[in-house]
Amino acid sequence: xxxxxxxxxxxxxxRRPARPGGLSRVSGLGxxxxxxWFSLLVLIPLLAVVVTAADGGWETFRAALTNEQTAxxxxxxxxxxxxxxxxxxxMGTLIAWVLVRDRFVGKRVLEVLIDIPFALPTxxxxxxxxxxxxxxxxxxxxxxxTRGAVFLAFLFVTLPFxxxxxxPVLAELDRDAEEAAAxxxxxxxxxxxxxxxxxxxxxIAAGAALSFARAVSEYGxxxxxxxxxxxxxEVTSVRILSSIENDNLxxxxxxxxxxxxxxLAVIVTLDVVQRRIARRG
Amino acid sequence: xxxxxxxxxxxxxxxxDGRRARRGSRRRRPRPAVGRYVQRLIVVAYLFFLVxxxxxxxxxxxxxxxxxxxxxxxxxxDVIHALRLTVYVAIVAVVINTVFGVGISILxxxxxxxxxxxxxxxIDLPLSVSPIVVGLSLVLVYGGRNGxxxxxxxxxGFQVIYATPGIIMATVFVALPLVVREVxxxxxxxxxxxxxxxxxxxxxxxxxxxxxxxxxxxxxxxYGVVLSLARSLGEFGAVKVVSGNVLGETRTAxxxxxxxxxxxxxxxAYATAFLLTMVAVACIVVVSFIRPDEGQP
Lengths: 281, 297
Known about the structure:
The complex is a heterodimer of chains A (281) and B (297). With 281 residues, chain A is mainly α. Chain A has 12 helices and no strands. Chain A has 2 domains: 21-55; 58-280, MetI-like fold (Orthogonal Bundle), CATH 1.10.3720.10. In chain A, helix 2 crosses helix 12 and helix 9 runs antiparallel to helix 12 (249-280). The two termini of chain A are 20 Å apart. Chain B has 297 residues and is an all-alpha fold. Helix content of chain B is 76%, strand content 0%. Chain B contains 15 helices and no strands. The longest helix of chain B has 34 residues, at 77-110. Chain B is globular, with a radius of gyration of 24 Å. The two termini of chain B are 15 Å apart. The model of chain B is unreliable at 1-27 and 293-297 (pLDDT under 50). Classes of the chains: A mainly alpha (281), B mainly alpha (297). At the A-B interface, helix 1, helix 3, helix 4, helix 5 and helix 7 of A face helix 2, helix 3, helix 5, helix 6 and helix 7 of B.
Protein backbone atom coordinates (compact mmCIF):
# COMPACT_ATOMS: atom_id res chain seq x y z
CA UNK A 1 0.00 0.00 0.00
CA UNK A 2 2.99 2.19 0.46
CA UNK A 3 3.85 1.76 -3.18
CA UNK A 4 1.59 4.53 -4.35
CA UNK A 5 4.00 7.30 -3.67
CA UNK A 6 6.97 5.46 -4.98
CA UNK A 7 7.46 6.57 -8.53
CA UNK A 8 7.07 3.61 -10.76
CA UNK A 9 8.04 5.47 -13.87
CA UNK A 10 11.46 6.32 -12.56
CA UNK A 11 13.02 3.17 -13.85
CA UNK A 12 12.01 4.10 -17.36
CA UNK A 13 15.44 5.39 -18.22
CA UNK A 14 17.19 2.50 -16.51
CA ARG A 15 15.09 -0.26 -17.91
CA ARG A 16 16.91 -2.69 -20.07
CA PRO A 17 15.47 -2.91 -23.56
CA ALA A 18 15.25 -6.69 -23.53
CA ARG A 19 16.74 -9.76 -22.00
CA PRO A 20 19.62 -11.38 -23.83
CA GLY A 21 18.14 -13.55 -26.55
CA GLY A 22 16.37 -16.81 -25.97
CA LEU A 23 14.22 -15.81 -23.05
CA SER A 24 11.85 -13.66 -25.01
CA ARG A 25 9.82 -16.74 -25.83
CA VAL A 26 9.63 -17.72 -22.16
CA SER A 27 8.78 -14.21 -21.02
CA GLY A 28 6.23 -13.92 -23.80
CA LEU A 29 4.63 -17.13 -22.63
CA GLY A 30 4.66 -15.86 -19.04
CA UNK A 31 3.01 -12.64 -20.12
CA UNK A 32 0.40 -14.62 -22.02
CA UNK A 33 -0.42 -16.82 -19.05
CA UNK A 34 -0.53 -13.83 -16.69
CA UNK A 35 -2.79 -11.89 -19.04
CA UNK A 36 -5.09 -14.87 -19.49
CA TRP A 37 -5.45 -15.29 -15.75
CA PHE A 38 -5.91 -11.57 -15.19
CA SER A 39 -8.55 -11.45 -17.92
CA LEU A 40 -10.48 -14.46 -16.64
CA LEU A 41 -10.39 -13.21 -13.08
CA VAL A 42 -10.71 -9.44 -13.37
CA LEU A 43 -11.18 -7.99 -16.83
CA ILE A 44 -13.89 -10.27 -18.25
CA PRO A 45 -15.98 -10.25 -15.04
CA LEU A 46 -15.80 -6.45 -14.79
CA LEU A 47 -16.63 -6.22 -18.48
CA ALA A 48 -19.61 -8.48 -17.81
CA VAL A 49 -20.92 -5.94 -15.31
CA VAL A 50 -20.82 -3.14 -17.88
CA VAL A 51 -22.23 -5.34 -20.66
CA THR A 52 -25.07 -6.56 -18.44
CA ALA A 53 -25.88 -2.98 -17.52
CA ALA A 54 -25.85 -1.99 -21.19
CA ASP A 55 -27.92 -5.03 -22.21
CA GLY A 56 -30.91 -3.69 -20.37
CA GLY A 57 -30.84 -0.64 -22.59
CA TRP A 58 -30.58 3.03 -21.70
CA GLU A 59 -34.08 3.22 -20.25
CA THR A 60 -33.48 0.39 -17.77
CA PHE A 61 -30.14 1.89 -16.87
CA ARG A 62 -31.68 5.26 -16.18
CA ALA A 63 -34.60 3.74 -14.32
CA ALA A 64 -32.21 1.84 -12.05
CA LEU A 65 -30.27 4.97 -11.22
CA THR A 66 -33.19 7.33 -10.85
CA ASN A 67 -34.95 4.94 -8.50
CA GLU A 68 -35.34 7.18 -5.47
CA GLN A 69 -33.91 4.71 -3.01
CA THR A 70 -30.85 4.08 -5.19
CA ALA A 71 -30.32 7.77 -5.84
CA UNK A 72 -30.49 8.44 -2.11
CA UNK A 73 -27.96 5.67 -1.47
CA UNK A 74 -25.55 7.06 -4.09
CA UNK A 75 -25.90 10.58 -2.72
CA UNK A 76 -25.23 9.41 0.83
CA UNK A 77 -22.25 7.28 -0.20
CA UNK A 78 -20.55 9.91 -2.33
CA UNK A 79 -21.27 12.75 0.11
CA UNK A 80 -20.01 10.82 3.11
CA UNK A 81 -16.96 9.59 1.18
CA UNK A 82 -16.07 13.17 0.26
CA UNK A 83 -16.43 14.32 3.87
CA UNK A 84 -14.32 11.43 5.17
CA UNK A 85 -11.69 12.01 2.49
CA UNK A 86 -11.45 15.68 3.49
CA UNK A 87 -10.89 14.66 7.11
CA UNK A 88 -8.32 12.08 6.02
CA UNK A 89 -6.40 14.68 4.04
CA UNK A 90 -5.97 16.77 7.19
CA MET A 91 -5.59 14.02 9.79
CA GLY A 92 -3.60 11.72 7.51
CA THR A 93 -1.08 14.43 6.74
CA LEU A 94 -0.84 15.34 10.41
CA ILE A 95 -0.33 11.70 11.43
CA ALA A 96 2.32 11.22 8.74
CA TRP A 97 4.03 14.42 9.89
CA VAL A 98 4.12 13.30 13.52
CA LEU A 99 5.34 9.81 12.58
CA VAL A 100 8.19 11.15 10.44
CA ARG A 101 9.27 14.28 12.31
CA ASP A 102 8.49 13.52 15.92
CA ARG A 103 10.13 11.01 18.20
CA PHE A 104 8.57 9.48 21.24
CA VAL A 105 8.12 6.22 23.04
CA GLY A 106 5.41 4.08 21.52
CA LYS A 107 5.65 5.41 17.99
CA ARG A 108 5.96 1.82 16.81
CA VAL A 109 2.57 1.12 18.35
CA LEU A 110 1.04 3.96 16.34
CA GLU A 111 2.55 2.48 13.17
CA VAL A 112 0.80 -0.81 13.93
CA LEU A 113 -2.49 0.94 14.76
CA ILE A 114 -2.52 2.69 11.39
CA ASP A 115 -2.29 -0.57 9.46
CA ILE A 116 -4.91 -2.38 11.52
CA PRO A 117 -7.90 -1.05 9.57
CA PHE A 118 -6.29 -2.41 6.42
CA ALA A 119 -5.79 -5.92 7.79
CA LEU A 120 -8.82 -6.25 10.04
CA PRO A 121 -11.74 -8.06 8.36
CA THR A 122 -14.34 -5.41 7.57
CA UNK A 123 -17.10 -7.28 9.38
CA UNK A 124 -14.92 -7.30 12.50
CA UNK A 125 -14.26 -3.59 12.01
CA UNK A 126 -17.99 -3.01 12.13
CA UNK A 127 -18.29 -5.18 15.20
CA UNK A 128 -15.54 -3.42 17.15
CA UNK A 129 -16.87 0.04 16.29
CA UNK A 130 -20.28 -1.12 17.40
CA UNK A 131 -18.95 -2.24 20.76
CA UNK A 132 -17.56 1.22 21.50
CA UNK A 133 -20.01 3.47 19.67
CA UNK A 134 -23.13 1.28 19.60
CA UNK A 135 -26.09 0.61 21.88
CA UNK A 136 -24.07 -0.49 24.89
CA UNK A 137 -21.45 2.19 24.39
CA UNK A 138 -19.24 2.58 27.46
CA UNK A 139 -18.66 6.22 26.47
CA UNK A 140 -22.32 7.01 25.92
CA UNK A 141 -22.00 7.69 22.20
CA UNK A 142 -24.50 5.73 20.18
CA UNK A 143 -24.26 6.06 16.42
CA UNK A 144 -25.77 2.66 15.57
CA UNK A 145 -28.31 2.88 12.75
CA THR A 146 -27.61 6.55 12.09
CA ARG A 147 -25.59 8.34 9.44
CA GLY A 148 -22.92 8.79 12.08
CA ALA A 149 -22.36 5.05 11.76
CA VAL A 150 -21.64 5.38 8.04
CA PHE A 151 -19.27 8.24 8.77
CA LEU A 152 -17.46 6.33 11.49
CA ALA A 153 -17.15 3.13 9.43
CA PHE A 154 -15.75 5.05 6.44
CA LEU A 155 -13.33 6.93 8.68
CA PHE A 156 -12.05 3.67 10.16
CA VAL A 157 -11.48 1.74 6.94
CA THR A 158 -9.85 4.65 5.07
CA LEU A 159 -7.42 5.61 7.85
CA PRO A 160 -4.21 4.12 6.36
CA PHE A 161 -4.35 5.52 2.83
CA UNK A 162 -3.31 9.16 3.15
CA UNK A 163 -0.87 8.37 5.98
CA UNK A 164 0.87 5.63 4.03
CA UNK A 165 1.17 7.60 0.81
CA UNK A 166 2.38 10.81 2.44
CA UNK A 167 4.78 9.21 4.94
CA PRO A 168 7.51 7.98 2.54
CA VAL A 169 7.50 11.23 0.58
CA LEU A 170 7.81 13.27 3.76
CA ALA A 171 10.62 11.04 5.01
CA GLU A 172 12.64 11.60 1.82
CA LEU A 173 12.01 15.33 1.74
CA ASP A 174 15.14 17.42 1.78
CA ARG A 175 15.07 19.65 4.84
CA ASP A 176 17.49 22.27 3.55
CA ALA A 177 14.74 24.34 2.00
CA GLU A 178 12.76 24.29 5.22
CA GLU A 179 15.74 25.36 7.25
CA ALA A 180 16.51 28.12 4.77
CA ALA A 181 12.92 29.36 5.02
CA ALA A 182 13.09 29.26 8.81
CA UNK A 183 16.41 31.11 8.88
CA UNK A 184 14.93 33.79 6.64
CA UNK A 185 12.28 34.37 9.27
CA UNK A 186 9.36 32.36 7.94
CA UNK A 187 7.05 31.10 10.63
CA UNK A 188 6.55 27.39 11.05
CA UNK A 189 3.16 27.60 9.44
CA UNK A 190 4.47 29.57 6.47
CA UNK A 191 7.31 27.12 6.03
CA UNK A 192 4.87 24.24 6.04
CA UNK A 193 2.47 25.92 3.65
CA UNK A 194 5.03 27.22 1.18
CA UNK A 195 7.76 24.57 1.30
CA UNK A 196 6.47 21.27 2.65
CA UNK A 197 2.88 21.23 1.42
CA UNK A 198 3.64 21.73 -2.29
CA UNK A 199 6.05 18.79 -2.17
CA UNK A 200 3.45 16.62 -0.50
CA UNK A 201 0.49 17.55 -2.68
CA UNK A 202 0.80 14.71 -5.22
CA UNK A 203 1.09 12.15 -2.43
CA ILE A 204 -1.86 13.66 -0.59
CA ALA A 205 -3.88 13.59 -3.81
CA ALA A 206 -3.02 9.94 -4.37
CA GLY A 207 -3.96 9.06 -0.79
CA ALA A 208 -7.18 11.03 -1.04
CA ALA A 209 -8.13 9.23 -4.27
CA LEU A 210 -7.52 5.82 -2.69
CA SER A 211 -9.37 6.80 0.44
CA PHE A 212 -12.35 8.08 -1.56
CA ALA A 213 -12.47 4.90 -3.64
CA ARG A 214 -12.33 2.73 -0.55
CA ALA A 215 -15.09 4.65 1.20
CA VAL A 216 -17.40 4.59 -1.81
CA SER A 217 -17.00 0.84 -2.17
CA GLU A 218 -17.22 -0.09 1.51
CA TYR A 219 -19.67 -2.76 2.54
CA GLY A 220 -18.52 -5.07 5.33
CA UNK A 221 -17.97 -2.50 8.06
CA UNK A 222 -21.50 -1.18 7.63
CA UNK A 223 -23.44 -4.44 7.85
CA UNK A 224 -23.75 -4.55 11.62
CA UNK A 225 -23.23 -0.88 12.31
CA UNK A 226 -25.51 1.15 10.08
CA UNK A 227 -28.65 -0.98 10.01
CA UNK A 228 -28.94 -0.35 6.24
CA UNK A 229 -32.08 1.74 6.58
CA UNK A 230 -33.40 2.83 3.17
CA UNK A 231 -33.09 6.60 2.53
CA UNK A 232 -31.17 6.98 5.78
CA UNK A 233 -28.12 4.77 6.17
CA GLU A 234 -28.25 2.55 3.10
CA VAL A 235 -25.12 2.87 0.96
CA THR A 236 -24.59 1.98 -2.68
CA SER A 237 -22.94 -1.41 -2.06
CA VAL A 238 -25.89 -2.50 0.06
CA ARG A 239 -28.26 -1.40 -2.69
CA ILE A 240 -26.36 -3.54 -5.19
CA LEU A 241 -26.41 -6.51 -2.84
CA SER A 242 -30.17 -6.31 -2.30
CA SER A 243 -30.64 -6.19 -6.09
CA ILE A 244 -28.48 -9.31 -6.40
CA GLU A 245 -30.46 -11.04 -3.68
CA ASN A 246 -33.72 -10.16 -5.45
CA ASP A 247 -32.22 -11.73 -8.56
CA ASN A 248 -32.37 -8.41 -10.39
CA LEU A 249 -28.88 -8.63 -11.85
CA UNK A 250 -29.48 -5.99 -14.53
CA UNK A 251 -30.32 -3.36 -11.96
CA UNK A 252 -27.41 -4.48 -9.78
CA UNK A 253 -25.08 -4.18 -12.76
CA UNK A 254 -26.37 -0.69 -13.58
CA UNK A 255 -25.55 0.61 -10.10
CA UNK A 256 -22.29 -1.34 -10.05
CA UNK A 257 -21.29 0.38 -13.29
CA UNK A 258 -21.45 3.72 -11.50
CA UNK A 259 -19.12 2.41 -8.79
CA UNK A 260 -16.81 0.97 -11.45
CA UNK A 261 -16.68 4.35 -13.19
CA UNK A 262 -15.60 5.90 -9.88
CA UNK A 263 -12.94 3.19 -9.39
CA LEU A 264 -11.61 3.77 -12.89
CA ALA A 265 -11.48 7.53 -12.36
CA VAL A 266 -9.46 6.92 -9.21
CA ILE A 267 -7.06 4.58 -11.00
CA VAL A 268 -6.52 7.13 -13.76
CA THR A 269 -5.93 9.85 -11.16
CA LEU A 270 -3.35 7.66 -9.42
CA ASP A 271 -1.60 6.92 -12.69
CA VAL A 272 -1.38 10.61 -13.58
CA VAL A 273 -0.19 11.54 -10.10
CA GLN A 274 2.46 8.83 -10.07
CA ARG A 275 3.74 9.99 -13.41
CA ARG A 276 3.95 13.54 -12.16
CA ILE A 277 5.96 12.47 -9.12
CA ALA A 278 8.19 10.37 -11.36
CA ARG A 279 8.84 13.27 -13.73
CA ARG A 280 9.81 15.58 -10.94
CA GLY A 281 11.97 13.08 -9.04
CA UNK B 1 10.48 4.80 9.90
CA UNK B 2 13.38 6.37 8.02
CA UNK B 3 13.80 9.18 10.46
CA UNK B 4 16.48 11.70 9.84
CA UNK B 5 19.09 10.96 12.45
CA UNK B 6 20.82 14.12 13.53
CA UNK B 7 23.41 15.19 16.06
CA UNK B 8 23.77 11.73 17.52
CA UNK B 9 24.99 12.90 20.89
CA UNK B 10 24.47 11.09 24.16
CA UNK B 11 21.06 12.73 24.42
CA UNK B 12 19.89 10.98 21.29
CA UNK B 13 21.47 7.70 22.14
CA UNK B 14 19.47 7.57 25.36
CA UNK B 15 15.94 6.23 25.19
CA UNK B 16 13.93 8.91 23.46
CA ASP B 17 11.75 10.04 26.28
CA GLY B 18 9.76 13.18 25.59
CA ARG B 19 12.10 15.72 27.13
CA ARG B 20 15.26 14.42 25.56
CA ALA B 21 13.70 14.31 22.12
CA ARG B 22 12.45 17.84 22.56
CA ARG B 23 15.81 19.16 23.60
CA GLY B 24 17.39 17.48 20.61
CA SER B 25 15.00 19.18 18.27
CA ARG B 26 15.47 22.57 19.86
CA ARG B 27 19.14 22.30 19.21
CA ARG B 28 18.38 21.56 15.59
CA ARG B 29 16.21 24.55 15.08
CA PRO B 30 14.06 26.76 17.23
CA ARG B 31 10.61 25.30 17.48
CA PRO B 32 7.94 25.79 20.11
CA ALA B 33 7.58 22.56 22.00
CA VAL B 34 3.91 23.20 22.77
CA GLY B 35 2.88 22.81 19.16
CA ARG B 36 4.70 19.54 18.90
CA TYR B 37 3.00 18.21 22.02
CA VAL B 38 -0.38 19.32 20.74
CA GLN B 39 0.20 17.53 17.43
CA ARG B 40 1.35 14.42 19.20
CA LEU B 41 -1.64 14.50 21.53
CA ILE B 42 -4.13 14.96 18.68
CA VAL B 43 -2.66 12.04 16.74
CA VAL B 44 -2.52 9.72 19.74
CA ALA B 45 -6.06 10.59 20.82
CA TYR B 46 -7.42 10.20 17.29
CA LEU B 47 -5.86 6.76 16.84
CA PHE B 48 -6.86 5.73 20.34
CA PHE B 49 -10.54 6.52 19.87
CA LEU B 50 -10.74 5.35 16.27
CA VAL B 51 -8.65 2.18 16.41
CA UNK B 52 -7.02 1.15 19.67
CA UNK B 53 -9.95 1.33 22.03
CA UNK B 54 -12.58 -0.26 19.74
CA UNK B 55 -10.24 -3.06 18.69
CA UNK B 56 -9.22 -3.82 22.26
CA UNK B 57 -12.89 -4.19 23.19
CA UNK B 58 -13.14 -7.27 20.99
CA UNK B 59 -10.88 -9.12 23.43
CA UNK B 60 -12.86 -7.87 26.41
CA UNK B 61 -16.18 -8.92 24.88
CA UNK B 62 -14.87 -12.27 23.67
CA UNK B 63 -13.83 -13.20 27.20
CA UNK B 64 -16.66 -11.44 29.04
CA UNK B 65 -17.89 -14.83 30.31
CA UNK B 66 -14.48 -16.33 30.70
CA UNK B 67 -13.70 -19.06 28.22
CA UNK B 68 -17.33 -20.12 27.69
CA UNK B 69 -17.82 -18.43 24.31
CA UNK B 70 -14.46 -19.44 22.97
CA UNK B 71 -15.07 -23.06 23.98
CA UNK B 72 -18.54 -23.10 22.49
CA UNK B 73 -17.37 -21.90 19.07
CA UNK B 74 -14.40 -24.24 19.08
CA UNK B 75 -16.74 -27.14 19.88
CA UNK B 76 -19.10 -26.20 17.08
CA UNK B 77 -18.28 -28.34 14.02
CA ASP B 78 -19.77 -25.74 11.68
CA VAL B 79 -17.50 -23.02 13.05
CA ILE B 80 -14.52 -25.35 12.83
CA HIS B 81 -15.44 -26.10 9.23
CA ALA B 82 -15.72 -22.38 8.51
CA LEU B 83 -12.31 -21.71 10.06
CA ARG B 84 -10.75 -24.56 8.07
CA LEU B 85 -12.34 -23.32 4.86
CA THR B 86 -11.14 -19.78 5.53
CA VAL B 87 -7.55 -20.90 6.13
CA TYR B 88 -7.61 -23.19 3.09
CA VAL B 89 -9.00 -20.47 0.81
CA ALA B 90 -6.55 -17.90 2.15
CA ILE B 91 -3.54 -20.16 1.60
CA VAL B 92 -4.56 -21.07 -1.95
CA ALA B 93 -5.28 -17.42 -2.72
CA VAL B 94 -1.95 -16.27 -1.31
CA VAL B 95 -0.02 -18.88 -3.30
CA ILE B 96 -1.78 -17.88 -6.53
CA ASN B 97 -1.28 -14.19 -5.85
CA THR B 98 2.37 -14.65 -4.94
CA VAL B 99 3.22 -16.55 -8.13
CA PHE B 100 1.16 -14.20 -10.27
CA GLY B 101 2.41 -11.12 -8.41
CA VAL B 102 6.10 -11.90 -8.74
CA GLY B 103 5.70 -12.88 -12.39
CA ILE B 104 3.75 -9.81 -13.36
CA SER B 105 6.09 -7.52 -11.39
CA ILE B 106 9.11 -8.82 -13.26
CA LEU B 107 7.30 -8.47 -16.58
CA UNK B 108 6.20 -4.93 -15.75
CA UNK B 109 9.59 -3.73 -14.60
CA UNK B 110 12.04 -5.60 -16.81
CA UNK B 111 10.25 -5.82 -20.12
CA UNK B 112 8.75 -3.47 -22.61
CA UNK B 113 5.54 -4.53 -24.31
CA UNK B 114 2.50 -2.83 -25.78
CA UNK B 115 -0.14 -2.09 -23.16
CA UNK B 116 2.39 -2.19 -20.33
CA UNK B 117 1.26 1.12 -18.86
CA UNK B 118 -2.41 0.13 -19.07
CA UNK B 119 -1.70 -3.18 -17.37
CA UNK B 120 0.27 -1.47 -14.63
CA UNK B 121 -2.70 0.81 -13.93
CA UNK B 122 -5.32 -1.95 -14.24
CA ILE B 123 -3.51 -4.15 -11.74
CA ASP B 124 -4.50 -1.64 -9.05
CA LEU B 125 -8.17 -1.80 -10.01
CA PRO B 126 -9.18 -4.55 -7.52
CA LEU B 127 -8.10 -2.27 -4.65
CA SER B 128 -10.78 0.25 -5.46
CA VAL B 129 -13.59 -2.00 -6.66
CA SER B 130 -16.34 -2.65 -4.12
CA PRO B 131 -16.32 -6.24 -2.81
CA ILE B 132 -19.99 -6.48 -3.72
CA VAL B 133 -19.19 -5.51 -7.30
CA VAL B 134 -16.40 -8.12 -7.31
CA GLY B 135 -18.93 -10.75 -6.26
CA LEU B 136 -21.49 -9.56 -8.79
CA SER B 137 -18.96 -9.59 -11.63
CA LEU B 138 -17.92 -13.17 -10.85
CA VAL B 139 -21.56 -14.27 -10.64
CA LEU B 140 -22.29 -12.68 -14.02
CA VAL B 141 -19.49 -14.66 -15.68
CA TYR B 142 -19.32 -17.91 -13.71
CA GLY B 143 -22.88 -18.17 -12.36
CA GLY B 144 -24.23 -21.66 -12.99
CA ARG B 145 -27.61 -20.57 -14.31
CA ASN B 146 -27.02 -17.71 -16.71
CA GLY B 147 -23.39 -16.67 -16.40
CA UNK B 148 -21.24 -16.25 -19.50
CA UNK B 149 -19.08 -19.32 -18.85
CA UNK B 150 -20.91 -20.78 -15.86
CA UNK B 151 -23.33 -23.18 -17.61
CA UNK B 152 -20.58 -24.61 -19.81
CA UNK B 153 -18.30 -25.13 -16.81
CA UNK B 154 -21.15 -26.72 -14.88
CA UNK B 155 -21.85 -29.11 -17.73
CA UNK B 156 -18.22 -30.10 -17.48
CA GLY B 157 -18.87 -30.85 -13.81
CA PHE B 158 -17.13 -27.79 -12.42
CA GLN B 159 -19.16 -25.53 -10.17
CA VAL B 160 -17.63 -22.14 -9.41
CA ILE B 161 -20.30 -19.96 -7.84
CA TYR B 162 -21.75 -21.20 -4.52
CA ALA B 163 -18.71 -23.45 -4.21
CA THR B 164 -15.11 -23.25 -3.04
CA PRO B 165 -13.58 -22.22 -6.42
CA GLY B 166 -15.78 -19.12 -6.44
CA ILE B 167 -14.70 -18.21 -2.91
CA ILE B 168 -11.08 -18.63 -3.93
CA MET B 169 -11.54 -16.50 -7.05
CA ALA B 170 -13.23 -13.73 -5.08
CA THR B 171 -10.44 -13.80 -2.51
CA VAL B 172 -7.70 -13.79 -5.14
CA PHE B 173 -9.44 -10.87 -6.87
CA VAL B 174 -9.54 -8.60 -3.84
CA ALA B 175 -5.96 -9.32 -2.75
CA LEU B 176 -4.48 -9.31 -6.26
CA PRO B 177 -2.52 -6.02 -6.29
CA LEU B 178 -0.89 -6.36 -2.88
CA VAL B 179 2.19 -8.41 -3.85
CA VAL B 180 2.68 -6.48 -7.10
CA ARG B 181 2.56 -3.13 -5.33
CA GLU B 182 5.26 -4.16 -2.86
CA VAL B 183 7.57 -5.91 -5.30
CA UNK B 184 7.50 -3.47 -8.25
CA UNK B 185 9.13 -0.48 -6.50
CA UNK B 186 11.89 -2.69 -5.07
CA UNK B 187 12.61 -4.27 -8.43
CA UNK B 188 12.88 -0.79 -9.92
CA UNK B 189 15.13 0.32 -7.09
CA UNK B 190 17.66 -2.54 -7.32
CA UNK B 191 18.19 -2.10 -11.03
CA UNK B 192 19.53 -4.70 -13.40
CA UNK B 193 23.31 -4.59 -13.05
CA UNK B 194 23.55 -7.71 -10.91
CA UNK B 195 21.14 -9.62 -13.11
CA UNK B 196 23.13 -8.61 -16.16
CA UNK B 197 26.33 -9.73 -14.49
CA UNK B 198 24.77 -13.10 -13.73
CA UNK B 199 23.62 -13.38 -17.31
CA UNK B 200 27.00 -12.53 -18.75
CA UNK B 201 28.57 -15.15 -16.48
CA UNK B 202 26.29 -17.75 -18.01
CA UNK B 203 23.52 -18.15 -15.43
CA UNK B 204 20.21 -19.27 -16.83
CA UNK B 205 16.85 -17.68 -16.11
CA UNK B 206 16.02 -19.88 -13.13
CA UNK B 207 19.45 -19.41 -11.56
CA UNK B 208 19.32 -15.65 -12.05
CA UNK B 209 15.91 -15.46 -10.49
CA UNK B 210 16.74 -17.70 -7.55
CA UNK B 211 20.18 -16.31 -6.76
CA UNK B 212 19.87 -12.64 -7.69
CA UNK B 213 16.30 -11.43 -8.12
CA UNK B 214 14.62 -13.34 -5.31
CA UNK B 215 17.05 -12.31 -2.54
CA UNK B 216 16.74 -8.66 -3.52
CA UNK B 217 12.94 -8.64 -3.40
CA UNK B 218 12.75 -10.99 -0.42
CA UNK B 219 11.47 -8.55 2.19
CA UNK B 220 9.08 -6.77 -0.11
CA UNK B 221 7.74 -10.18 -1.06
CA UNK B 222 7.26 -11.25 2.55
CA TYR B 223 5.55 -7.94 3.23
CA GLY B 224 3.22 -8.39 0.28
CA VAL B 225 2.48 -12.00 1.21
CA VAL B 226 1.64 -11.14 4.81
CA LEU B 227 -0.66 -8.31 3.72
CA SER B 228 -2.33 -10.63 1.18
CA LEU B 229 -2.79 -13.24 3.87
CA ALA B 230 -4.49 -10.77 6.20
CA ARG B 231 -6.68 -9.49 3.41
CA SER B 232 -7.57 -13.01 2.23
CA LEU B 233 -8.52 -14.28 5.67
CA GLY B 234 -10.77 -11.30 6.21
CA GLU B 235 -12.62 -10.97 2.92
CA PHE B 236 -16.31 -10.63 3.53
CA GLY B 237 -18.43 -8.83 0.93
CA ALA B 238 -17.21 -10.58 -2.21
CA VAL B 239 -17.30 -13.98 -0.49
CA LYS B 240 -20.82 -13.30 0.76
CA VAL B 241 -22.05 -12.82 -2.80
CA VAL B 242 -20.33 -15.82 -4.41
CA SER B 243 -20.44 -18.35 -1.57
CA GLY B 244 -24.16 -18.82 -1.06
CA ASN B 245 -23.28 -18.91 2.66
CA VAL B 246 -24.24 -22.57 3.13
CA LEU B 247 -23.75 -23.68 6.71
CA GLY B 248 -20.99 -26.24 7.04
CA GLU B 249 -20.12 -25.99 3.35
CA THR B 250 -19.34 -22.55 1.99
CA ARG B 251 -19.62 -20.42 5.11
CA THR B 252 -16.33 -18.70 5.95
CA ALA B 253 -15.19 -17.26 9.28
CA UNK B 254 -16.22 -13.69 8.49
CA UNK B 255 -19.69 -14.91 7.52
CA UNK B 256 -19.87 -16.77 10.83
CA UNK B 257 -19.28 -13.48 12.66
CA UNK B 258 -22.16 -11.83 10.84
CA UNK B 259 -24.51 -14.78 11.24
CA UNK B 260 -23.77 -15.23 14.95
CA UNK B 261 -24.21 -11.54 15.66
CA UNK B 262 -27.51 -11.30 13.78
CA UNK B 263 -28.75 -14.40 15.61
CA UNK B 264 -28.07 -12.73 18.95
CA UNK B 265 -25.14 -15.01 19.74
CA UNK B 266 -23.01 -11.98 20.58
CA UNK B 267 -20.51 -14.04 22.56
CA UNK B 268 -19.92 -16.40 19.65
CA ALA B 269 -19.60 -13.47 17.24
CA TYR B 270 -17.03 -11.76 19.46
CA ALA B 271 -15.10 -14.98 20.02
CA THR B 272 -14.83 -15.63 16.27
CA ALA B 273 -14.01 -11.98 15.66
CA PHE B 274 -11.31 -12.24 18.31
CA LEU B 275 -9.61 -15.08 16.44
CA LEU B 276 -9.71 -13.08 13.18
CA THR B 277 -8.43 -9.98 14.94
CA MET B 278 -5.51 -11.88 16.46
CA VAL B 279 -4.41 -13.08 13.02
CA ALA B 280 -4.79 -9.60 11.51
CA VAL B 281 -2.84 -7.93 14.32
CA ALA B 282 -0.15 -10.61 14.15
CA CYS B 283 0.21 -9.98 10.41
CA ILE B 284 0.55 -6.24 10.95
CA VAL B 285 3.09 -6.64 13.74
CA VAL B 286 5.17 -8.94 11.53
CA VAL B 287 4.98 -6.37 8.75
CA SER B 288 6.02 -3.54 11.06
CA PHE B 289 9.13 -5.47 12.04
CA ILE B 290 9.99 -6.18 8.42
CA ARG B 291 9.41 -2.70 7.17
CA PRO B 292 12.58 -0.95 8.39
CA ASP B 293 14.70 -3.60 6.66
CA GLU B 294 12.81 -3.14 3.47
CA GLY B 295 14.14 0.38 3.00
CA GLN B 296 17.77 -0.65 3.36
CA PRO B 297 19.70 -0.80 0.13
